[in-house]
Write the structure tokens for this entry.
Amino acid sequence: MCLGIPMQIKEINYFKASCEAKGVEREVSLFMLQHEEIKVGDFVMVHVGYAIQKMTEEEAQSAWEVYDELLAMEN
């Protein structure tokens, strides 16, 4: 199973972005979203180091609620 992780963009440098989710920061490629207007503060779905979809804050929060429930069930 593959999961995309919702992350918030903290900094943009050309096609690379510094993103954060739950205190974890990663460098993410924005190459796949090069034709979309992406700015600091936006939320993106990240899969294997690539932002694959722009999303709203509400969509990101909803995804994290589901992931948190899955993690709680595992414990």
